[in-house]
TrEMBL record, chain B:
The lineage of its organism: Bacteria, Thermotogati, Deinococcota, Deinococci, Thermales. It is found in: Membrane. Signal peptide: none annotated. It holds the Pfam family NADHdh. The chain crosses the membrane at residues 56-75, 87-106, 121-141, 153-174, 206-227, 234-253, 265-282. This is Hydrogenase-4 subunit C. It is a multi-pass membrane protein. Keywords: Membrane, Transmembrane, Transmembrane helix. InterPro entries: ComplexI_Subunit1 (IPR052561), NADH_UbQ_OxRdtase_su1/FPO (IPR001694). The keyword Repeat does not apply.
Length: 551, 284
């Protein structure tokens, strides 16, 4: 496969840079590229060409949703807009390239290029983003190390080593516990369109890589499946509990990404242990649904100037459109019927329950994740969008943003109505979800209209008849989460003047950074600047090469 | 079909519990049929919209009722839709109702509503996994991976099914907001879980919530009826009557647990769930 046409947006972006209509032009080009990718990917997936085409479909859908968002958003970053306009299409093209590349040096080249572009896109945001960008960079180094071990060692070392390298290489990108810490550090600090792309699309490449590896490197040994299953579920529970204590709206969304990726990794692990189409259906449907709803939520968060949950509130009344779209996104994210994430979890439950050995117990972990996700999204939506406003929040909610979120919400609705778009090539049946969706929608609409027509009186909220309620009487972000955090005492809640929840795994990447710097310093002794040393090295190289060739 | 039957019976169920509780404390008690008139009265009243509310304030009671009815419709006590994995959809439809109810509680901007909301979330986190595992264990022993193929209590499957029944009973107490977990008759906002969430809902909205609350208990009673041998509609009535007795006695002679002790109580639910699932895997 030589996917030259995936580089089309690069050419278009180069053309568009410098033109006075660059923003509108960029969004038009991205929209066209997204449409083309989506249609091609959809056709390829429907005709059974394989997982890379589903990824292309996912990427196309996300790009299509992103396109109208960019002009209005980048107008707030006039200085970096050029660079974003240049880097974003490149980043998209590199992701499409990774998905379609065959295993080999070309794949590694594209993979590293994608990581580098991602680093630039995060770091562009400014000095506040540097720590997150650094964590992202170090995670890419770790991921690269694993992939080099697997790709170069294939055929020389045993399957166990190859798969260990793959687990590290692709697992780090897919936020496998306990290497997930880079994701909640890097994704929230980037600008919202970049966060949407990183969480929605880039992390899925790790999943795609692991899935494709079974064809590239032969079937995995059984321990890989168990490791993926256990770490995936553990990571999902951990991420939700930690995310409950997260004050930053985008940070909480990033933890939710770790949770969703954990479930997908668990589905893949279970599939490796017992190949059932149900598990594959859960794996792929969850990916597409997560890309769409997480894109929707990250882009929606980009409309807010203030992202601390304890300073938000009452946003629904201020921007009902944003509130309704975010409700749909978060309801889907909480894994509730009739959303597509529920359909994926529904298949995952069935797959787990029919699995070998003790795998049915994983259904209990999945139920715990479901209950925690409910709590998690009630907290996010309820504190940010409902109740009394806790402060003045400026909104940038433009026409283009409306269109963008509307497109993503519409695609999500399409997926809920016709999950067969993803599931049919796998031959996985579902129950008639469209009927449930329409029934619930129509009945709720009838009741809603009826209740609005009934006699009604506007009045104050019940306050026990004492002093009137103030916005500060509502619980803040940590206050709402504390009763649940009490149940999971492995994370310490620091109370006092500045309450916060600790993140013990945040130290993983600074540690990796120190080791990496030490190694680099060690290698640097060779680059001393002394001409004599360089000449000696050349001579030694010559001798070694001659020795190898002659002997 | 099952949903319609439950809809007709739900006010009788909660009315009977109230009547029996009154009798047990040597009071005259209102007729068990009073609950129908009460709902009718509420339905005709003016409802109050607190100032900061949004459409979710209305969607809360509506979807709480619709979700519960949807879950009940999947119970094959009377003929109805049935498919592979329907028990998962039923439990998650209850979850949908809970999600909007928790959001609607936050909508009025009241600290009590928020308190009820996160307490409900904690009860869900504690109770949900156990109930789901117990039900899954029972389904694994049956045929067709569906509620319509659930096994009936017999000698060879008694252990798993008894554990599942115990877990469903605890689930009913937790999700139905009954005595050791929550006190439905309390007037002190600080101790409320379920009631705190619906404080600001009045008139027809309250009627929808009350109906949804009784229906939720009937859903768990229906699940238990499916696990017992006999003609299902009659067993369902029997289980419902048994729960009227049990709830009345429990709430007359029992006390509400301190909120912080809930994890101790509901961890039995998780234990029953794990054991039932293990029993279904290893067939003991």
């Amino acid at each position: 496969m030589s996917p030259l046409w995936t580089f089309l947006p690069l050419v278009l972006a180069l053309l568009s840079v410098g033109t006075p209509w660059r923003f509108r032009g960029l969004s038009l080009f991205l929209g066209m590229a997204g449409l083309a990718w989506g249609v091609l990917g959809g056709m390829g997936w429907a005709s059974g060409l394989g997982a890379p085409y589903l990824y292309l479909l996912l990427l196309g859908a996300l790009t299509l949703g992103l396109a109208p968002y960019l002009p209005a958003y980048l107008a707030h970053h006039p200085r970096e807009a050029h660079l974003y306009g240049f880097l974003l299409p490149l980043f998209l093209a590199s992701m499409a390239g990774v998905a379609l590349a065959s295993p080999g040096l070309g794949f590694l080249f594209l993979w590293e290029g994608m990581a580098l572009l991602g680093y630039f896109l995060i770091a562009l945001e400014g000095p506040n983003a540097l720590a997150g960008a650094r964590a992202f960079f170090l995670a890419s180094r770790l991921s690269g190390a694993g992939l080099y071990l697997a790709f170069l060692g294939h055929g020389h070392v045993g399957a166990d080593w190859v798969w260990a390298g793959l687990l590290l290489g692709f697992g780090v990108k897919a936020a496998l516990f306990p290497f997930h810490a880079w994701l909640p550090q890097a994704h929230p600090v980037a600008i919202s369109p970049v966060s949407a792309l990183l969480s929605g699309a880039m992390t899925k490449l790790g999943l795609l890589g692991l899935y494709q590896s079974q064809y590239w490197f032969g079937p995995p040994p059984p321990w890989v499946g168990w490791v993926l299953l256990l770490l995936g579920l553990l990571g999902a529970v951990y991420a939700l509990v930690r995310g409950l204590g997260e004050e930053d709206l985008k940070g909480a969304l990033a933890y939710s990404s770790v949770e969703n990726l954990g479930l997908m990794l668990a589905a893949l692990g279970a599939y490796f242990l017992k190949p059932m189409p149900l598990l594959l259906g859960a794996f792929f449907l969850h990916q597409v649904a997560h890309a769409l709803f997480k894109g929707l939520l990250f882009l929606g968060a980009g409309a807010l100037e203030e992202r601390r949950i304890s300073h938000l509130g009452g946003l629904f009344r201020k921007a009902p459109g944003l509130g309704a779209l975010a409700l749909w996104g978060m309801g889907v994210g909480a894994g509730l019927p009739p959303g597509p994430v529920f359909l994926a979890e529904w298949q995952l439950y069935q797959g787990f329950l029919q699995g070998p050995f003790l795998m049915p117990l994983a259904a209990g972990a999945l139920a715990l994740v479901g209950a925690l996700a409910l709590y998690f999204y009630v907290r996010l939506y309820g504190l940010a969008f409902l109740g009394l406003p806790r402060g003045e929040v400026a909104l940038h909610w433009t026409q283009g943003m409306r269109l963008s979120l509307g497109v993503l919400a519409g695609l999500l609705l399409l997926l809920a109505l016709v999950p067969g778009l993803v599931l049919d090539p796998l031959g996985v049946p579902t129950y008639p979800n469209w009927l449930l969706l329409i029934l619930l929608g129509v009945l709720a609409g009838v009741f809603y209209r009826g209740l609005l027509r009934m006699p009604m009186r506007a009045y104050g909220t019940w306050d026990c008849g004492f002093q009137p309620l103030t916005p500060r009487m509502q619980p803040n972000g940590l206050g709402f989460a504390e009763p649940a955090l009490r149940l999971f005492p492995f994370l310490r809640l620091q109370v006092g003047e500045h309450p916060r929840l600790e993140e013990p795994l945040a130290e993983v990447y600074p540690g990796v950074g120190r080791i990496y710097a030490r190694l680099a310093a060690w290698v640097q002794t060779l680059q001393s600047g002394s001409l004599h040393l360089y000449l000696l090295l050349q001579l030694l190289t010559l001798v070694v090469v001659l020795g190898v060739v002659l002997l | 079909m099952t949903a319609l039957l439950a809809l007709v019976l739900a006010p009788l169920f909660s009315g009977s519990v109230k009547w029996l509780k009154a009798r047990l404390t040597h009071r005259q008690g209102l007729s068990p049929l009073m609950e129908y008139r009460n709902l009718f009265k509420l339905w005709r009243k003016v409802w109050i919209a607190p100032h900061p509310t949004t459409p979710l304030f209305l969607l809360g009671p509506i979807l709480a009722l619709l979700g519960t009815l949807g879950a009940l419709a999947l119970l094959p006590i009377l003929p109805g839709p049935t498919f592979k994995g329907d028990f998962l959809l039923a439990l998650y439809l209850l979850g949908l109702g809970r999600f909007v109810q928790m959001l609607a509680a936050l909508d009025a901007g009241s600290s009590f509503g928020a308190q009820g909301s996160y307490r409900e979330g904690v009860v869900t986190v504690l109770a949900e996994p156990g109930t789901l595992m117990a039900l899954a264990g029972a389904v694994l022993l049956g045929e067709g991976f569906s509620l319509s193929g659930l096994p009936e209590l017999g000698v060879e499957n008694s252990l798993v099914l008894l554990l599942a029944l115990a877990s469903l009973a605890l689930g009913l107490l937790a999700e139905g907001a009954r005595m050791p977990v929550d006190d439905p008759t309390t007037h002190l906002e600080l101790t409320m879980i379920h009631e705190a969430q619906i404080l600001d809902h009045s008139g027809p909205l309250l009627a929808l919530y009350e109906l949804a609350g009784s229906l939720k208990m009937l859903f768990y009673a229906g699940l238990m009826a499916l696990l017992l041998p006999g003609f299902k509609p009659l067993v369902f009535l029997g289980v419902g009557a048994a729960w009227v007795l049990a709830l009345a006695y429990l709430e007359t002679y029992g006390v509400k647990l301190r909120y912080l002790r809930l994890p101790d109580f509901l961890s039995y639910n998780t234990l029953f769930g794990v054991l039932a699932l293990l029993g279904a895997i290893w067939r003991f």
